[in-house]
């Protein structure tokens, strides 16, 4: 076993001991439980603490660090969002019959967190399994338009003849998204596929998610305005619902 791998295994052993303990534990407890040299335990605990994996309380005892709290907080927020969005997604599905998605921003990408499948035999796919460049996605355009993810610079990948190919084209499109309140993708990711999306705002009026629909151009193209207005109305309801949940805590 290499020294690097051995160090990782020892650090993992200490971390597991700390985070699974019923209460904060001392440096001496860790030494006794692991049978490692005191200097090794001290060095590894310091490394774990520097990286937010463990922390010491006022008594100097070790417990799980801030990184675990951050992860739990993010996970809880997504779970709360999905639960609150479910009736919204179901209503949009019933009204349109198309595939309905809920997505959240993550770094410079869009992550699908919930989907209601199309009621039609010919419908959109399970988008959780598909990587879509944000500039060719209605959900992605919403995230760009309202600052949830950074707008790319330079040339953009052209997937069809209708895909936006430059930042200037994209910025012009995003201005329209902000003006009308929803994004439209017309055969920009794949010929014969259209999509629309509208933003969901959090308590600080920042976009925390987007609700969108997708399906065959032959069904959706003539309904852009109607479906867009529906998404704006329903995502607005979800935004207000999220704000009420926070204010009632």
From TrEMBL:
<dbReference type="Pfam" id="PF09339">
    <property type="entry name" value="HTH_IclR"/>
</dbReference>
<dbReference type="InterPro" id="IPR029016">
    <property type="entry name" value="GAF-like_dom_sf"/>
</dbReference>
<dbReference type="InterPro" id="IPR050707">
    <property type="entry name" value="HTH_MetabolicPath_Reg"/>
</dbReference>
<keyword id="KW-0238">DNA-binding</keyword>
<protein>
    <submittedName>
        <fullName>Allantoin/glyoxylate utilization operons negative regulator</fullName>
    </submittedName>
</protein>
<dbReference type="InterPro" id="IPR036388">
    <property type="entry name" value="WH-like_DNA-bd_sf"/>
</dbReference>
<feature type="domain" description="HTH iclR-type">
    <location>
        <begin position="5"/>
        <end position="66"/>
    </location>
</feature>
<dbReference type="GO" id="GO:0003700">
    <property type="term" value="F:DNA-binding transcription factor activity"/>
</dbReference>
<feature type="domain" description="IclR-ED">
    <location>
        <begin position="67"/>
        <end position="249"/>
    </location>
</feature>
<dbReference type="Pfam" id="PF01614">
    <property type="entry name" value="IclR_C"/>
</dbReference>
<dbReference type="InterPro" id="IPR036390">
    <property type="entry name" value="WH_DNA-bd_sf"/>
</dbReference>
<dbReference type="InterPro" id="IPR005471">
    <property type="entry name" value="Tscrpt_reg_IclR_N"/>
</dbReference>
<dbReference type="InterPro" id="IPR014757">
    <property type="entry name" value="Tscrpt_reg_IclR_C"/>
</dbReference>
<keyword id="KW-0805">Transcription regulation</keyword>
<dbReference type="GO" id="GO:0045892">
    <property type="term" value="P:negative regulation of DNA-templated transcription"/>
</dbReference>
<keyword id="KW-0804">Transcription</keyword>
<dbReference type="GO" id="GO:0003677">
    <property type="term" value="F:DNA binding"/>
</dbReference>
């Amino acid at each position: 076993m290499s020294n690097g791998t051995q160090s990782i295994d020892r650090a993992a052993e200490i971390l597991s001991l700390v985070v699974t303990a019923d209460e904060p534990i001392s440096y001496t407890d860790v030494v006794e439980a692991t049978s490692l040299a005191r200097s090794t335990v001290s060095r590894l605990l310091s490394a774990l603490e520097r990286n937010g994996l463990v922390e010491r309380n006022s008594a100097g005892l070790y417990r799980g660090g801030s990184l675990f709290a951050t992860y739990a907080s993010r996970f809880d927020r997504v779970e709360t969002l999905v639960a609150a969005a479910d009736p919204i997604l179901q209503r949009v599905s019933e009204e349109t019959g198309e595939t309905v998605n809920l997505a959240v921003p993550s770094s410079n990408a869009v992550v699908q967190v919930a989907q209601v499948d199309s009621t039609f035999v010919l419908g959109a796919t399970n988008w959780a399994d598909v990587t879509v460049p944000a500039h060719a996605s209605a959900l992605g355009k919403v995230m760009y338009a309202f600052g949830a993810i950074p707008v790319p610079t330079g040339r953009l990948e052209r997937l069809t003849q209708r895909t936006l190919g430059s930042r200037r084209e994209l910025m012009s499109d995003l201005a329209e998204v902000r003006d009308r309140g929803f994004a439209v993708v017309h055969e920009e990711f794949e010929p014969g596929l259209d999509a629309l999306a509208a933003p969901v705002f959090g308590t600080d009026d920042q976009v925390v998610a987007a609700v969108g629909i997708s399906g065959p151009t032959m069904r959706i193209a003539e309904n852009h305005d109607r479906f867009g207005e529906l998404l704006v109305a329903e995502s607005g309801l979800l935004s207000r619902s999220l704000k009420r949940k926070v204010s009632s805590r």
